[in-house]
Write a structure and sequence with these properties.
277 residues; mainly alpha
């Protein structure tokens, strides 16, 4: 946190930690603003993508060494599980869909796991390096940013439309858009189109909001727990440690589960694109 003349209140502390470092240099007024770029979300999501790619590449290289180890075994288990889930949901060629699902699961899992970084560590590092004079705000969890989760959901939407057109061809996809689910009667075409557009929008927004809501809530709970340690009392420090430990253990389930749910929804929506109404 930038140098201040007084200790922040609980409200100021939470607001500061929930503010993004964006292109305006000022606190973002709205939860989502397409006119701004949240540089912290871009940086950490890119860093986790590079880390995930490196680990997968490293595992692939070690397979050829002929010496099995736990790391390779763990990666192979995840790959095989995602492949089986893809094959059971998507009726068609999964050559590119299974890698997409694997990328979604591991990448989102890594981004979610950033929630375990101590909430005051980024500010401490910024002060230690002198960057706090330039970067006044910083959030480390990309999936707690609705801009980021909505962008990922839009990619899944585009993918489902792409596979819908690929499998049914453009004419068949357009025909289904105007004829399902009520029927192919011309008078029903506007209602079919409206319902399908609402369905596409609902899928996209619900995917983004589900991941964002869970990770934002988890981040907020960690901030509230951190405030217990700021009481400078024995009971506050004790509660800070116990509640922080308990929530961190429980949060492991949330981190993995939210990545799994996003992956499964990706497969379900792309699988639906392979099928007719």
């Amino acid at each position: 946190m930038a140098a201040e003349t007084h200790a922040p209140t609980a409200s100021e502390y939470i607001v500061h930690h929930l503010t993004h470092f964006n292109t305006s240099g000022e606190p973002q007024k709205d939860i989502i603003d397409f006119s701004l770029i949240n540089w912290d979300t871009v940086f950490w999501s890119s860093a986790m993508a590079v880390l995930a790619a490196f680990l997968l590449y490293r595992a692939a290289r070690l397979v050829h060494a002929g010496v099995p180890n736990r790391f390779v075994g763990a990666i192979e288990s995840v790959v095989e599980y995602v492949h089986e889930q893809t094959r059971s949901i998507v009726r068609g060629d999964i050559t590119y869909i299974a890698p997409l699902a694997l990328t979604v699961f591991i990448w989102i899992g890594f981004m979610n796991a950033l929630d375990f970084v101590p909430v005051d560590l980024p500010d401490f590092l910024l002060r230690a390096t002198g960057l706090d004079h330039t970067i006044h705000y910083h959030r480390i969890v990309p999936t707690a940013d609705l801009n980021g989760t909505l962008a990922m959901s839009l990619v899944i939407l585009i993918s489902s439309i792409y596979y819908g057109i690929k499998v049914k061809h453009f004419g068949g996809w357009i025909h289904e858009l105007f004829s399902a689910p009520f029927g192919a009667h011309p008078l029903l075409a506007p209602f079919n189109l409206l319902l399908n557009l609402i369905e596409y929008a609902a899928k996209t927004i619900s995917m983004a909001m589900r991941l964002f809501g869970n990770m934002f809530a988890g981040e907020l709970v960690f901030l509230l727990i951190a405030l217990l340690g700021a009481t400078a009392t024995t009971w506050g420090a004790g509660l800070h440690f116990l509640t922080g430990l308990g929530w961190a253990i429980f949060h492991i389930l949330i981190v993995v589960l939210q990545a799994f749910i996003f992956m499964m929804l990706t497969l379900v929506y792309i699988g639906q694109a392979h099928e007719g109404h």
